[in-house]
Amino acid sequence: MLIYLLKSGACLAIFMAFYTFFLEKENMHVFKRFYLLGALIIAFAIPLITFTQYIEVPALPMAKETFAPVAFYTDHSPQIEETNYLPFIFWSIYALGVLVFGSLFIKNLNQIVFKIKRNPKQKSKHVIHVLLNDLVTPHTFFNYIFLNRQKFEKHEIPKEVFWHEESHAKQKHSVDVLFIELLQVIFWFNPLIYFVKHAVKMNHEFLADQAVLNKGISLPTYQHILLAFSSNASESPLANAINYSSTRHAARVIKKRFTVMKTHTTKRKTWILSILLLPILALLIYSFSESEIIEKEVASMSTVVIQDTEIGATEAMMTEYKSIIDDIESTHTIWTPKINRAAAIYDIMTEAQRITVKKYPENPVINLATVKPKTPSETLFDFWKNKVEFAIWIDGKHVSNETLKDYKASDFKYYTSSFVYNNARSKKFPQPYQNHLYTKSGFEDNYLKSNVNKYNRLKNEYLKTENAFINSNEKDDSELRILKAQLAKVYNSISENEIERYDVNLSTTFQNEQSQNLKSYLLERDKTITLLDNPKAYPGIFLEMSDGDQRIFQAQYMKMHRAYSKLTELEKNSAPKMLPPAPGPKGYILKNGKIIKKNQ
């Protein structure tokens, strides 16, 4: 808020400096009227302008898993906090100022309404004369012109005065005055508002003076009338009066009005001053507006996308997915392992399959890797040594409160504290508070590396499941595909910095290929082996085959070779190989485990 007030104040000060030095004494009063009102609006609007710049960054989704012990921790430890009364004092002073100036505004408005209702009125064309018994200077509020009754009835008020006040009414100067008065209530502490208010009301007089002179009245005659009405009689602050002099220096104000009456501003000069405003406005917008950079996520080279859009989810997967969603809707409970599994199945589905189901609900969890360090104060740390009130864990291991004597508060990079209700306390932990403290290494393992550790655990599970699948007769690789999609999600939640810092390598696990390819290769290899009596020495046996058997074997081998070419590098490294068959009498054969060249 303070920054906004300073910026808007600086803009308004520059606008008013330009007005004072270049515009005030010029005879271009209509332009100046809109300039002053526009300067107020623009000065308060410029700090609110925000220029947005979009930059493309790799998409890094948040992790979709949490740890219950941390998610439900609430810090209820006794804490010593210092109350900052300064904002309360400032806001109280501001509210008091608004109350005072608001009351004055309402008071002045009521006084005008009271005068209109309690005094006789005479309508004259588009204005209404309100006749007062008090000795007042003629003044105007909207289309009401307030005059001294005695002088009005004796016709002692010159027609030039009527013309002057009627100009205020016709040009709706009271709208400008009310606008400034309302701003003054809100920004009563800003001295520039008073300066602008004075400039606006002075320019109203310039406009009214010009309207009178345009009727053909001689300048000396009109100046003499102004001097005659430059009395100390009072009028409402909300009204426009012919003798306006909002300062004690009435003579200087009258002199300024006389000077402006004699001034002639050419159209060329008006255009030059108008054009000069453009670079000033551009400079203010550039200097005092806000700018923000919004990161627009785009696909990253390191982001793994697991969407088997060509294959899609199996019928069993779809049944499992619908069961999870039904369970969530019936129990109104989100269990993290189930929702992670549902998300993986949803990623595997084709677009046509997704249309037939409800999308899984998002799991509102904390990305532990983004948790900021939080070191306890010495005072708070001393409280925790009380074994009656606090149960203590350090890096996940329960310790006695006396162990804290071996540490300082600065030894811990993070802590959590939870309050345990009476019915949840045990004999082993009867304390009302349970605190988990983390050293530098503990904080890194449990928080900073949480996504990496999660990835490594899931990777090991995937490799174990893949190995079991390869060595089994199972043909359905659905579980591998689900684990692969889950693994990709976790990998995508790891930042580029974490990948580099902890040497996370996705290629050691999989490369977005179907494990069914490996299964197909192994099946084709088994078929090839069945054609041989002794697979280990098959090149020699191949040479002894008939031409028809060799063609059958070669066709089966080529089928196996095509299945092998579809494997990933990881799968090729783990897949058992076969030597190619020797191409007839001229070729290579295997003898005693070694390849030798057959004699021609």
The total strand number stands at: 13
* Strand ordering within the main sheet: 2-3-5-4-6
What overall geometry do the principal axes of the alpha carbons give?
A: elongated
Structural class: alpha/beta
What is this structure, in a nutshell?
The protein is α/β, with parallel strands linked by helices and 600 residues long.
Description of the molecule:
The protein is elongated. The strands form 4 sheets. It has a 5-stranded mixed beta sheet, with helices on both faces. A 4-stranded mixed beta sheet has the order 9-8-11-10. It has a two-stranded parallel sheet with strand order 1-7. Strand 12 and strand 13 (594-597) form a beta hairpin. The protein has 23 helices and 13 strands. It has helices spanning 2-23, 29-45, 68-71, 86-118, 149-153, 159-170, 173-186, 191-213, 219-228, 250-262, 267-288, 315-331, 336-348, 351-355, 378-383, 440-448, 450-470, 478-492, 496-501, 516-529, 538-544, 547-565, 569-574; strands spanning 50-58, 121-124, 127-132, 139-141, 144-148, 240-241, 290-298, 390-394, 397-399, 414-419, 433-438, 588-591, 594-597. The chain has 600 residues and is an alpha/beta fold.
